[in-house]
Specification:
- Two copies of one chain form a homodimer.
- With 347 residues, chain A is an alpha/beta fold.
- Chain A folds into three domains: 45 residues, 434 Repressor (Amino-terminal Domain) (Orthogonal Bundle), CATH 1.10.260; 132 residues, Response regulator (Rossmann fold, 3-Layer(aba) Sandwich), CATH 3.40.50; 130 residues, Response regulator (Rossmann fold, 3-Layer(aba) Sandwich), CATH 3.40.50.
- In chain A, strands 2-1-3-4-5-11 form a six-stranded parallel beta sheet, with helices on both faces. Chain A has a four-stranded parallel beta sheet with strand order 7-6-8-9, sandwiched between helices.
- At the A-B interface, helix 4, helix 5, strand 2, helix 6 and helix 11 of A face helix 4, helix 5, strand 2, helix 6 and helix 11 of B.
- Strand 2 of chain A pairs antiparallel with strand 2 of chain B.
- Chain A binds a DNA duplex (16 and 16 nucleotides) through helix 2 and helix 4.
DNA sequence: TTGTATGCGTTATCAG
DNA sequence: CTGATAACGCATACAA
């Protein structure tokens, strides 16, 4: 409670006050394996309490060669919808009493590379890549992978969430399956004419979702031509623009499949502006099920992705090192049908 | 580019390769004040590059006595609307190339106290308190303030955002003014009968907003009785419940003033459920102007709070130490009138 | 089990 | 301006 005479109390202070050596104090307070005689431990703990001692984790990191916190690399602090991936990881970390250092790559591959370098300086236990959305084309380029590999070679752990194909432990959130499952259910509802608001052309996440969607449809004999795929930004404004483009093309469309809820919301806004009746004239579906959109109208059909579980899985991957090559944990979301895609009458 | 033979390259490695001393290498790479002969500096920089050297910031923190990063303490990772305060700070930090460590107090005062303790362990340059929303009653209790004061005595800086009255540097975001400005404009539009969805009874932020609102109205001869104030949670569900309560009371109300946009959205959802015409039968206004709600309908009248500026101001406060007592930077938002509060016909 | 001594990577001090 | 050398706070091999 009371603080040392000066500022911070050090381990030496505690040891002195408890009448033991630095080593014993260290072991009693932080050292995990070694045992300390109970009464001594008590004395140390008491002394620490009285001095208001808290370990200097920087010094700890120096001595141990690596810190204990986790660095979370996101592509951007999106003001619209803060990455659900980040939320998932933050939650899981909270449960583990883990510190998380968040840093943004500002949607720039070069910046991402620089950021990883400064992350290397921190020497965190692990770097978690929270991709998943607003991924710029080629964001995970060679330079970045190199830098991350460097970090890994130095003893750090790297886990990618929702970005398959990287040479690191990966938590796959089932983007392809999400698209496929959604397509299947929409087909069951009677939909046949789709336009896809596909997000950035080179973004892996977007690509997988679209691919799954089209494949599942193809299996049912429904082709979604390339001319029905409109690329756009990953966010609300992207959807807004793409919906406008869709209107312009006048292709027969009964349902707009948006690569993400954010895109879907933008599209809805645009369609409304055009005076369209939703979902009467046009149905809309997205992917993500972001909670903040619970109250949009019409209520949005979407695929709930397991972000909380993904965060958990990522942290577990970090906690259980395994050097037998990159592991991949596969999760899967589930479709949530709502008002924006009502069942169509039998054809 | 190439890494040292083993793992991490150390300052000693760089010095050796450049043929200079540790000290010189350190000064060339990090030390700010001292000067180094240009050609030597070049040699060092080159060596560092070739070795892929990155400073060990933990060691740096130990040597310097304090780290360079900033800790951001939020009340909770709200899945609905990630605290705009946090976004503001993150943005500003990004611009400064500063690392930010985010940690949540899980809306619990006890947890907050523990969290500050573990923050003390990290020895960050500063701790920024991102209050502002979902503040539990008495979240900033004495124990917490004590712990923060301890941290400050150890040489750390503390800045509170949107939580006035704390013995630390503060960025005031103008909660009272927000309520007042909004009330004034609504009165100008012709509104007279209000019910207030007031948020948690003891939350300072909520209290200030409501107080400003009622005062400005009182100045214009409009009284909002205590029976027109309904307390509720700070979030969407709080608004949902409070709107239900409002309906039950059947008090004549033409406009629902929600303490926050989140509450407003919840209220709108509840009113819709009750089959009400918005804004024809009931107008709704909030405070915050969260971007994610840009597309709710009817478009929400609200007060845009200067979160980005607040983040900037907080970081500036951190950057310019000043021990002449707590400073306070006062910012102010501005009202944004939208569809949810149409002008009423002359009375 | 406990204490001693040494190392971790940087910065800071103080001579040269 | 540069280079030895001593902190910084903690962990840990090694000896007791």
């Amino acid at each position: 409670m009371a603080q040392g005479s000066n500022g911070r109390a050090t381990l030496a202070d505690v040891a002195r006050r408890a009448g033991v050596s630095h080593a014993t104090a260290s072991r009693a307070l932080n050292g995990s394996t070694r045992n300390v005689r109970p009464d001594l431990r008590q004395r140390v703990l008491a002394a620490a309490g009285e001095l208001g001692y808290v370990v200097n984790s920087a010094a700890q990191a120096v001595a141990r060669g690596r810190g204990e916190h986790i660095a979370l690399l996101v592509n951007g602090i999106n003001d619209d919808y803060f990455s659900p991936v980040a939320s998932g990881v933050l939650h899981a970390a909270e449960a583990d009493d883990r510190m998380v250092t968040m840093i943004s790559s500002r949607n720039s591959p070069e910046q991402a590379t620089r950021v990883v370098a400064s992350l290397r300086a921190q020497r965190p236990r692990a770097i978690i890549l929270a991709g998943g959305r607003s991924v710029t084309a080629g964001a995970w380029d060679a330079r970045l992978v190199d830098e991350l590999t460097l970090y890994q070679n130095e003893g750090g752990r790297v886990v990618a969430i929702s970005e398959e194909g990287l040479p690191f432990d990966t938590v796959a959130v089932g983007n392809r399956a999400a698209g496929a499952d959604l397509a299947a259910q929409l087909a069951d509802l009677g939909y046949r004419d789709f336009t896809v608001l596909a997000g950035p052309a080179q973004a892996r996440t977007a690509h997988d979702r679209v691919a799954g969607f089209r494949e599942a449809l193809a299996e049912r004999g429904i082709e979604v031509g390339e001319d029905r795929v409109i690329h756009c930004g990953f966010d609300r404004d992207g959807g807004y623009a793409a919906a406008g483009e869709c209107l312009r093309r006048r292709a027969p469309t009964r349902l707009l499949f948006a690569i993400s809820d954010a895109v879907a919301v933008g599209a809805i806004a645009r369609l409304r502006e055009a005076g369209m009746d939703l979902p009467g004239e046009m149905a809309v579906a997205g992917i993500d099920d972001v909670p903040a959109l619970r109250d949009v109208s019409p209520a949005l059909t979407t695929v709930r992705l397991p972000w909380p579980e993904a965060g958990r899985a990522a942290l577990d991957l970090v906690a259980e090192p395994d050097d037998t090559g990159p592991r991949v944990v596969r999760l899967r979301g589930h479709v949530v049908l709502r008002e924006s895609t009502p069942a169509l009458g039998r054809l």
